[in-house]
Amino acid sequence: LQLAQIEVFKQGFNQKLEEGQKKLHQMWLDWSRKFSKDSGEESSAGPEEMESLALLMAHSVTQQLQITCCKIVSAIEGLPSSLQDNVKQSLKIMEELHASFSVAKSFQDLSSSVLTQSHRNLAVIQEYMEGLLDYLENNIPLSWLVGPFFRLGEEE
């Protein structure tokens, strides 16, 4: 039962990750088809339109990551505070990153330091999520084993 619950959590997490990767891949394919022909020649779309689509894709990806982090924060109540803090920090990072891409009208609106820091922050988030999964693999939360406790006479 314990391992089954962890496996369900991991499968759900992996499924969401896979769905996000497929969506991102499809967006990339659509974007690539729009701006290049089979011969490798660039289409008539200008750099401004390509830049706009790339920013739109970044905005969409950061929004999905923000939603996922928010769901994870609510799902890990009762776990060690260090894990909760890491996930809350991940959510904060995603909110900031999403805000940066939301207001940007062009890549020039994003400084190189923002882009570099974003890359580092995404690596930190990945590390935090891997730590969370490692913890869940080795330490099953008690509430997952026995469920919620109610005093006699209380109804759900």
From TrEMBL:
The keyword Transcription does not apply. Transmembrane segments: none annotated. Keywords: Lipid droplet. GO terms for cellular component: cytosol; lipid droplet. The keyword Metal-binding does not apply. It holds the Pfam family Perilipin. Its main location: other. It is found in: Lipid droplet. One of its GO terms (biological process) is positive regulation of triglyceride storage. It comes from the Eukaryota. InterPro entries: Perilipin. Belongs to the perilipin family. This is PLIN3 protein. The gene is Plin3_2.
